Automatic annotation (TrEMBL):
Name this polypeptide is given: Cytochrome c
Residue ranges annotated for the Cytochrome c domain, each copy included: 13-115
Annotated GO MF terms: electron transfer activity; heme binding; metal ion binding
One of the Pfam families matching this protein, by short name: Cytochrom_C
Native organism: Vibrio caribbeanicus ATCC BAA-2122
Organism lineage: Bacteria, Pseudomonadati, Pseudomonadota, Gammaproteobacteria, Vibrionales
InterPro entries the record matches: Cyt_c-like_dom, Cyt_c-like_dom_sf, Cytochrome_c_Oxidase_Subunit
Transport among keywords: yes
Record flagged with keyword Iron: yes
Length: 120
């Protein structure tokens, strides 16, 4: 009887652990995909210069598609802090000023993920 109880208990623990892993993974995947969609919506103003697919059609504007997320965040915060100047910095400073930290995070996630297999 003790052996059956122990086997049953082990089965319950493994099932519970499996469910925790499954739901954690599902929430992560859903959350990342949701952040991509949110970032895509927030990035619409960026698309005017940087292209709808993150590839700029004017040489003066950098491509953002597949860019490193940390770099994008750092760049936008540098524009907000007026640490970047010259060229089109004044335009980017104005654009960056309108963004919250969450906006920056979402937009950076969108462009850094754009072009990868999950978001071609």
């Amino acid at each position: 009887m003790i052996m059956v109880s122990q086997l049953l208990w082990n089965c319950i623990k493994k099932t519970a652990l499996g469910l925790v892993v499954f739901f954690t993974y599902s929430a992560f995947v859903y959350g990342a995909d949701e952040q991509f969609k949110i970032g895509q919506e927030k990035a619409k103003v960026c698309m005017t210069c940087h292209g709808a697919d993150g590839i700029a059609h004017i040489d003066a504007y950098p491509n953002l598609r597949g860019q490193n997320k940390g770099y994008l965040i750092s760049s936008l915060k540098s524009y907000q802090a007026r640490e970047r100047s010259g060229g089109l910095a004044v335009l980017m400073q104005q654009q960056a000023d309108a963004l919250s930290d969450q906006d920056i995070e979402d937009i950076a996630h969108f462009y850094s993920t754009l072009g990868k297999s999950s978001h071609p």
